[in-house]
Amino acid sequence: MTTATITLGQRSSHGGLAGAIASEWTKVWSVRSSWLNIVAAVLLTALLGVQFGFSTAYDNTHLRPGHVAEQVAVGSVGVSAMIIVQVVVAAFALLQVTSEYSTGSIRSTLQWTPVRRNVVLGKAVVLGPPLFAYGLLLGAIAAVSGGLAMGEWADWDLATLVVDLVSIAAYLTLGGLFTLGIAFVIRSTAGTLTAAFLMLLVLPMMLGQSSLRALVWLAALLPGGAGQSFLSGSTDPLSPTISFIVLIAWTVGGLAFGLKLLQRRDA
Fold first, then answer.
1. Percent of all residues in the chain with a pLDDT value above 90, rounded to a whole number
2. Is residue 192 helix, strand or coil?
3. 187: closest CA among 75, 73, 74, 107?
């Protein structure tokens, strides 16, 4: 067996899904942008938690006539904070794709992993667990900082907190993977971040406040609207379960569309 044959065999082995996963894991944690993103998200989450906590405490001590002060679950602070912080988490996901296109390293990635399905699957598999852990971390930070700021108005019920944290982590994981998929479609960091900002935050918020029922339904069917309904437990216009299914559909669809375009276009 010649040296060239051995090298080809090694490239073929490492070019599979297992090799893609190992390669993508190294890429995620060896670049500074991933760590800077986490630091920024942690600081922003803590500040938002404190803001929401103090706001709740102020409202409960400055009640309008006829209103009664009630304790607020600390996990709900995490839910409120994640509506804003989700864009930062989306940036964490999209940079794993757009940074390769901006530097041209995507060509090396596709040469090393010629089966393009494995490139998308490798990135999705590698990002899934960190995104879930990321969501748990940020949700916990918001809950603790917000709860401390609320003081006596904070409800620290553990069971409710766990449900809220898991829900936050699930939503951020799916939202991040959806963004990963559209990053393969748009390719640029600015363009993908803009699309994620619109789909996850701006459009659902604008349409959801409309007086037209059709626009409210449209908001609920967008990934951000489905995620907000899922996190808040709202049943109007969709139940949390249906909203979660809609979110999964967007995630799978985004990844599938990204893969389809990756297979058709040159790097």
1. 82
2. helix
3. 107
Which residues lie below 8 Å from residue 240, measured CB to CB, with a gap of 6+?
229, 230, 233, 234
DSSP secondary structure string for all residues of 110-179: HHHS-SHHHHHHHHHHHHHHHHHHHHHHHHHHHHHHHHHHHGGGEE--HHHHHHHHHHHHHHHHHHHHHH
216 and 208 Cβ atoms separated by less than 8 Å: yes
Q: How far is CA 210 from CA 197, 201, 204, 206, 215, in A?
A: 19, 15, 10, 7, 6
Q: How far apart are CA 132 and CA 130, in angstroms?
A: 5
- The string of pLDDT tens digits covering residues 40-60 is 999 999 999 999 999 999 988
pTM of the full structure: 0.90
Cβ count near 260 (within 10 Å): 14
Tokens coding 202: 């701006």
